[in-house]
Write a structure and sequence with these properties.
This protein has 16 helices and twelve strands. The chain is an alpha+beta fold. Among the domains are: 2-70, no CATH class; 144-259, set domain protein methyltransferase, domain 1, CATH 3.90.1410; 341-507, no CATH class. Strands 1-4-9-8 form a four-stranded antiparallel beta sheet, with no helix packed on it. Helix 7 crosses helix 12. The two termini are 54 Å apart.
Length: 508
């Protein structure tokens, strides 16, 4: 699960966050949670506490404004792009009870997006979509195909919805015709990468992710077709259920669906007309949008930070890596993504001998861009502590202290001469640094080899290249930047250690 992946990354790198908080999204979410607690407290206030709570609320609002200003991303609207179909969809949605303070426009570098028509504050509702116009599994249950699909072992509600949409998009009398009319002929996600783009990614994590995803989908398709079309051609016309049509529907549901909790407590995967134009951002305006309001029976997209008139209003699709976003959504987000990590695959037999610490039980390790850490000092080097601790434990049974000064009582026992304590402390410090030097040199060797495998694509003409080759090139550039930062940190760390070792030798 991607949620579990995001949580794992946050815990793994939590000790070395350089921003003072893990990510802008998490910070915004935390501050809005505190605001909700204050709002609840004010509704049950004690008079003497009211002013204090209001002062705290004002301070939080000011902090959110500061964060919003700090991470505000400019956008350029393409005025030549006519959004006629999108305007028709918006009008249809409003006629069916939707409310919005956003308009649809074409944003350069992002495609279609939702632009604020007025200034909006924290807590304002940017968009409200009634549950009655959401596309969910409930529509399948009312269709003729449900009687067939429910008899298939292992058939999920998500797959049912996907198969329903493959046919419904061609229904001229569909309630959702205007919605389907706005959908692109090609979603341009990693699932549609051509041979040239795939080959360019050989040896990368993204290559493996795309190939595994496509293989999974192909197996799923072959289990259903052409059998369903042969047995029920009236319900599953073969011309509507080709592999290409199936892949299109998969891309639609991967890139546009949302998990929504309905008023009856059921969690359903849905397509939300109009809301699908809200793009993803590492600095989202909207972070909570997955629950139907039982009072209005609608889905409300409430702002967690201000959005100015003319600004693109964004939400968060989740704590996803760049490889996941390319594979299932077809883009890389702007800015530094803290979830862009490189997993490390190595065996360490002595993991159980590690010194006791809260993170000593990590069985998988990873790295990310070291610019995200402010602690580049000796014993840290901008690298994740769980990784360094694991490698240190595998090399040495000696207790490791991340300091250049060790107090003598740490070593001295009763009647131990002072001079022996001094020598022992010096020996431990020197041994620790020698271990770190070996570790950094090994990591340097590993990532030098990785950099060689990530050969650049300078020979690629990016102006004339296809969309998928351009996206593959962007991903490899991002990976090279991460690896380059690790190599720089290793090199700088080795110099730091060598400098301290030379000082130790001079003092001997």
């Amino acid at each position: 699960m991607q949620w579990a992946f995001g949580m794992q990354v946050e815990l793994y790198f939590g000790q070395i966050g350089g921003l003072g908080f893990y990510s802008p999204r998490n910070e915004m979410e935390a501050q809005n949670f505190i605001l909700s607690l204050i709002k609840s407290a004010l509704s049950h206030h004690v008079r003497m506490q009211t002013h204090a709570l209001q002062d705290l609320r004002d301070a939080l609002i000011n902090r959110i404004h500061e964060l919003g200003t700090e991470f505000k991303v400019g956008n350029k609207i393409d005025i030549n792009y006519k959004c006629d179909k999108e305007k028709c969809l918006l009008q249809w949605a409003e006629n069916n009870g939707a409310k919005t303070r956003l308009q649809i426009a074409y944003v350069e570098g992002a495609g279609r997006g939702a632009i604020a028509m007025e200034d909006m504050e924290v807590g304002d509702i940017a968009m409200e979509i009634p549950a009655s116009i959401t596309i969910s599994e409930d529509l399948v249950y009312k269709s003729d195909m449900y009687q067939v699909l429910q008899k298939i072992d292992g058939m999920s509600s998500e797959t049912m919805s996907l198969l329903w949409s493959m046919k419904e998009r061609h229904n001229c009398n569909s309630q959702f015709k205007m919605y389907f009319d706005t959908l692109p002929e090609n979603f341009n996600t990693g699932l549609s990468f051509g041979v040239e783009a795939i080959m360019a990614l050989d040896g990368t994590l993204l290559f493996e992710e795309i190939m595994q995803a496509k293989e999974h989908l192909r197996v799923q398709y072959d289990e259903l077709f052409p059998a369903l079309s042969k047995d029920h051609p009236d319900i599953f016309p073969p011309e509507l259920y080709t592999w290409e049509q199936f892949l299109w529907a998969c891309e639609l549901w991967y890139s546009n669906s949302m998990k929504i909790m309905f008023a009856d407590g059921n969690l359903k995967t849905c397509l939300i007309p109009v809301a699908g134009f809200l793009n993803h951002s590492l600095h989202p305006h909207i972070v909570h949008y997955g629950k139907i309001d039982s009072t209005t029976n609608s889905l409300k997209f409430r702002l967690s930070r201000p959005c100015s008139v003319g600004e693109q209003c964004c939400l968060s699709y989740g704590n996803f890596s760049g490889s996941h976003l390319i594979t299932f959504y077809g883009f890389l987000p702007q800015g530094d993504n803290p979830y862009d990590v490189i997993p490390l695959d190595f065996e360490v037999d002595q993991v159980d001998t590690m010194v006791e610490c809260p993170l000593s039980n990590w069985t998988t390790h990873m790295v990310r861009g070291t610019w995200l850490s402010e602690n580049q000092n000796i014993f840290y080097y901008g690298l994740p502590s769980p990784l360094l601790d694991c490698l240190r434990s595998a090399r040495s049974q000696m207790p490791f202290t991340k300091t250049l000064v060790i107090s003598f009582p740490y070593f001295c026992v009763l009647h131990t001469p002072y001079i022996y304590c001094e020598v022992l402390a010096s020996h431990v410090i020197k041994a620790n640094m020698e271990v770190d030097k070996e570790i950094l040199e090994d990591l340097q060797s590993t990532f030098n080899a990785m950099m060689e495998n990530l050969s650049d694509m300078d020979s690629v003409d990016r102006e004339s290249s296809s969309w998928d080759v351009k996206l593959a090139s962007q991903f490899k550039e991002m990976q090279r930047r991460i690896v380059s930062s690790i190599l720089t940190s290793c090199s700088t760390g080795i110099k730091l250690v060598e400098h301290e070792l030379s000082k130790c030798k001079a003092e001997e």
